[in-house]
Amino acid sequence: MTELSTTGAEPRKYTEVAVGVLIRESDNALLITSRPAGKPRAGWWEFPGGKLEKGETVEQALRRELQEELGITIANCIAWKVTEHSYTHALVRLHWCKVTQWTGEFEMREGQQMSWQQLPLTVQPVLEGSFPVLQWLSEERGLPFDVAQYANAALADGL
Ligand SMILES: Nc1nc2c([nH]c(=O)n2[C@H]2C[C@H](O)[C@@H](COP(=O)(O)OP(=O)(O)OP(=O)(O)O)O2)c(=O)[nH]1
């Protein structure tokens, strides 16, 4: 699938990404991780996940990514939302899954950081492609959502 071009330039291809919203049973906290060194927006915060490889389903990609990056094995992957975002470095389609069960101990295999967070998040800046999901999660929980809180931090850090 491609984006329509209005400039006559080659349309950009979507990068398909599987993203996990891991929800901790005891307190509904959300797992947020930092982007490792060497990637665009290194140090920014995101939900864990990564790009689909050829032939993979969203669930397979998420299972592989979370094993590779965090050392855990997910036991469920509840398809939730699909969003799109255009970055200068990529046009991404994000396939969001809720994950409520997993096995294994968390191990940050790419030198990243992890944080169990309640809403609103206290870690910043957050990838702007994740803002819609933060809004939906806030709505589900009956909490206010202020995009400016996230957008200001992203702007300050070079969005
Ligand atoms: N994992 C993740 N990616 C996100 C989120 N929000 C968001 O816009 N993205 C975007 C950022 C990236 O452009 C893309 C994910 O690509 P990536 O480079 O992190 O994926 P990857 O781990 O497979 O990386 P790679 O080393 O194989 O290149 O999705 C999010 O909350 N989590």
TrEMBL record:
Similarity-based family: Belongs to the Nudix hydrolase family.
Cofactor annotation: Mg(2+)
Domain Nudix hydrolase: 13-139
Catalysed reactions, semicolon-separated: 8-oxo-dGTP + H2O = 8-oxo-dGMP + diphosphate + H(+); 8-oxo-GTP + H2O = 8-oxo-GMP + diphosphate + H(+)
InterPro entries: MutT-like (IPR047127), Nudix_hydrolase (IPR020476), NUDIX_hydrolase-like_dom_sf (IPR015797), NUDIX_hydrolase_CS (IPR020084), NUDIX_hydrolase_dom (IPR000086)
Residues annotated as signal peptide: none
MF GO annotations: 8-oxo-7,8-dihydrodeoxyguanosine triphosphate pyrophosphatase activity
Enzyme class: hydrolase
Record keywords, A-Z: DNA damage, DNA repair, DNA replication, Hydrolase, Magnesium, Metal-binding, Mutator protein
Superkingdom of origin: Bacteria
Enzyme nomenclature, EC number: 3.6.1.55
Identification of the protein by name: 8-oxo-dGTP diphosphatase
Pfam families in UniProt: NUDIX
